[in-house]
């Protein structure tokens, strides 16, 4: 188990210029941890450490560095060294890198790539952001249907070196149309002279280059895949997406949902690496929208000034009432939004969800208002009518909040909007208005204000 | 691309009892889609359809069925058929199934398993929930260090049939201590006579049976693994976790966080399959806690009755003020909670986070209160002091909300509590109290109430 890295020991080797020893130590570590170590170093030392890496390992480590460090290293190595790295990088890693780097650096990188690599990278850079094309890799193993298992294994042994994954092989015809899929397991478990044609799986899952990367990741989760073929509009195989990239996509998409559901514009970088102004920019817009809606709620409240001027005590229950309504509503909307994100709930379930939320909200509403009523009767003896007003309003608020909260995300989806915006913040604002209207209408009736 | 399933055609084959045709059609489909199809059928037909499946496929499909359907099918097949399925299931799938089934059914399943399988299943059932042991599988390929590449490939070809993944092989000694890891890629790219010892990777990542499954999933994301070895406290290899199970864990853990952050007790089953009473039970507890905290806020508000009795208009700004504070706070807490969940933020970043949130909140606060001030001056001419009161309170509220929102999740973690509870609902309730105190203190000063 090698999760622990002795940063001190390694740092010491650098400061004492003991590069031979360092080279040995690093060569024993895996690329992720080496990258973590290099990130910790002051930039100039980072380059020194990077230079000590054996040729094969350098590119793997490079792919795991932050774009800032990548940029610095590119700036401090010569074209020859750069060329080696670019050629060794998997195309999808190279593309991820170039998308982050300033144009001038990108130019230099492409200048030092072979024409083929350059053509491939340029092609990849053209796929829309968040598309299958943008996360696929071109390093896959392709076979022909008339090969034997023996041929296939020979072919893999010959070409496997620079393939990101060799475990699923793709059978294509002369026009590169994808005919079938063969796993290395199939190959190993078949006779040498058996023909690929006979063991290939012809009803495989595939996606097109323009497919949304989130949908691609869902296919991995649904079918337990290690890789998925990406074809162009004519069914020609152009690349594959590997499970490790799908895992990253799942994590990023979940993070984006968390951010949207908290009324923020999702940010590109991790929190600690995002600037103060960007963070502020991402948050202000929605807060403004919600604040203005909040003003509307305020003006509704204004209509009842007479009521709470006559009975100021009523005001003291407003926070409890609106907060509980908001919380009850966002519980429901959260479950539905997440349910849709993982494809457990679809738009056709609208009625089922509302019916379920209606029943749940009744149970919850009764429990909460009962507790509330008892507590008020105890703390404010002689004010049973006020206690009843609060209890009744609370019940109605919870029921409306949960029904709305469950329905709005699905309705948003029906209108092709992102369900995630129908989360806590917006639901709370909407429910506030309802709860206050209910509260004071009940008050006016029961307390004759 | 076979994501489309012709349910109608297949259903027709069943109603017309055309089982031969059905068998052919199903055999062409993959297990996930067959399971989806069977789930759609009325239970009795589900068994009929299931029975038509070829022996090999039956277990794979069975593993993909819901526990309800599994239970029904087990109830309607004979012990012999059951025995076949149990033996064909991968141990981890069998265990997942048994954890859902009623004791009586579990007994019958175990009765029909071979002694070895039964022992293995029982052992797996003893690992704590959410531990690496509970999601690992016992079907892995083990090699010895003195084997040659040729031996190893032969070994895989002989035993690979019932291995869940053959792509990463584990090198163990006579005491089953894990010495190293060899990928099939390594094997294929090495000479036949080369010894395993020389190509195996000895600094591999491994986990113990009791490791939290969420930590295991993180290792997959961090190191781009296809499988990870699970060892007991003596370093003996007892099983492996495969990436497809890690993907499921990631999805479930994210869902749990969404639920916790919306003040709910995470539910075992998907929303649509969860009963009304369970849903209500999962939601009431937190709503009660928050409602009672809301009452405290109310009593704070009570102290200022004189103030808003004298100037009822002040009340109309309360919802806007408290909601904006709540939203601003939960934006910050959400980013920090998620940041910690994906290990981008750790407890040592507390000060960095607070300093960042302080600066962000200043920017956001200035923007919001400026807009608010202008709007109030326009709508309520002559009430500049009230406008100023609201604007100043809003600024202070946003700053406090964001600083608290950013800090509390980390502080919770410091006290070994789950950061996810410091999300929107609790933050809102806490911020409410602060914002109201600020609001009315400022009002009393500026408006001499």
TrEMBL record, chains A, B:
SUPFAM superfamilies: CBS-domain pair, MgtE membrane domain-like, MgtE N-terminal domain-like. Pfam families: CBS (PF00571), MgtE (PF01769), MgtE_N (PF03448). It is a multi-pass membrane protein. Acts as a magnesium transporter. This is Magnesium transporter MgtE. Homodimer. NCBIfam families: mgtE. InterPro entries: CBS_dom (IPR000644), CBS_dom_sf (IPR046342), Mg_transptr_MgtE_intracell_dom (IPR006668), MgtE_N_sf (IPR038076), MgtE_transporter (IPR006669), SLC41_membr_dom (IPR006667), SLC41_membr_dom_sf (IPR036739). It is found in: Cell membrane; Membrane. The chain crosses the membrane at residues 284-304, 360-380, 386-408, 420-442. Belongs to the SLC41A transporter family. Residues 200-256 form the CBS domain. PANTHER family: MAGNESIUM TRANSPORTER MGTE (PTHR43773). One of its GO terms (molecular function) is magnesium ion transmembrane transporter activity. GO terms for cellular component: plasma membrane. Keywords: CBS domain, Cell membrane, Magnesium, Membrane, Metal-binding, Transmembrane, Transmembrane helix, Transport.
């Amino acid at each position: 188990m090698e999760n622990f890295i002795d940063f001190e020991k390694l740092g010491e080797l650098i400061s004492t210029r003991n590069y031979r020893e360092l080279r040995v130590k690093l060569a024993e570590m895996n690329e992720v941890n080496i990258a973590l170590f290099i990130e910790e170093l002051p930039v100039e030392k980072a380059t020194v450490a990077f230079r000590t890496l054996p040729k094969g390992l350098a590119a793997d480590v490079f792919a795991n560095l932050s774009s800032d460090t990548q940029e610095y290293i590119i700036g401090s190595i010569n074209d020859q060294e750069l060329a080696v790295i670019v050629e060794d990088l998997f195309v999808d890693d190279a593309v991820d890198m170039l998308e982050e780097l300033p144009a001038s650096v990108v130019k230099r990188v492409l200048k030092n790539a072979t024409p083929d690599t350059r053509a491939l990278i340029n092609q990849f850079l053209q796929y829309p952001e968040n598309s299958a094309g943008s996360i696929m890799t071109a390093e896959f193993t392709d076979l022909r249907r008339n090969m034997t298992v023996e041929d296939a294994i020979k072919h893999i042994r010959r070409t496997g070196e620079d393939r990101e994954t060799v475990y699923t092989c793709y059978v294509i015809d002369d026009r590169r149309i994808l005919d079938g899929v063969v796993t290395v397991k199939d190959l190993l478990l078949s006779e040498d002279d058996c023909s690929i044609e006979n063991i290939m799986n012809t009803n495989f899952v595939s996606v097109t280059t323009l497919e949304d990367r989130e949908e691609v990741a869902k296919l991995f989760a649904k079918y337990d895949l290690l890789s998925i073929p990406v074809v162009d509009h004519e069914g020609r195989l152009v690349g594959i997406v590997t499970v490790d990239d799908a895992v990253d996509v799942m994590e990023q998409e979940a993070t984006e949902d968390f951010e949207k559901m908290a009324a923020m514009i999702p940010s590109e970088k991790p929190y600690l690496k995002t600037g103060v102004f960007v963070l502020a920019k991402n948050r202000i817009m929605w807060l403004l929208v919600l604040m203005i809606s909040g003003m509307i709620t305020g003006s509704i409240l204004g209509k009842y000034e007479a009521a709470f001027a006559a009975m100021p005590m009523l005001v003291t229950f407003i926070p409890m009432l609106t907060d509980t309504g908001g919380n009850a509503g966002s519980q429901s909307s959260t479950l539905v939004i997440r349910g849709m994100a993982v494809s457990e709930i679809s738009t056709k379930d609208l009625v089922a969800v509302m019916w379920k939320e209606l029943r749940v909200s009744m149970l919850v509403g009764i429990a909460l208002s009962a507790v509330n009523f008892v507590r008020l009767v105890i703390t404010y003896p002689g004010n049973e009518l006020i206690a009843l007003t609060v209890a009744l309003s609370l019940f109605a608020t919870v029921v409306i909040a949960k029904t709305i909260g469950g329905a709005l995300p699905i309705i948003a989806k029906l209108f092709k909007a992102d369900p995630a915006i129908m989360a806590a913040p917006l639901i709370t604002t909407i429910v506030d208005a309802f709860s206050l209207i209910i509260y004071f209408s009940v008050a006016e009736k029961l307390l004759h204000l």
